[in-house]
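User: You have something folded?
Assistant:
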Amino acid sequence: MSMSDPLADMITRIRNGQRVNKSSVSSPASNMRQRVLDVLEREGFIRGYNRADDQTGKPQINIELKYHEGQPVIREIKRVSKPGLRVYSSVADLPRVRNGLGISIVSTPKGVLSDSEARDQNVGGEIICTVF
């Protein structure tokens, strides 16, 4: 069965895994998912991830979730731009998540970046999700 929004599926797997205190979750692999995970790892929201093949030979991404004093580091993760409603923003209009405590992940012409990296490089783009 095909998914209409694979990125939302990965975000939901992360959210559900942290609700039940799992140490890691897996998701089907894609380059876009890896770029989003790169941003989450750089910003310190996950421990890391690795790409491996499952028993059927399909590529999977194993995401190592991060906890601080028993609580998940990611308190809230939401998909902003959806297949039915894309959300784009110029560099001047990039949203601040929880007054700068969280991040927005933005797909720009220079790659997938956090909102602060996009401001530093002076580029806007599609707002993929927000993380707090």
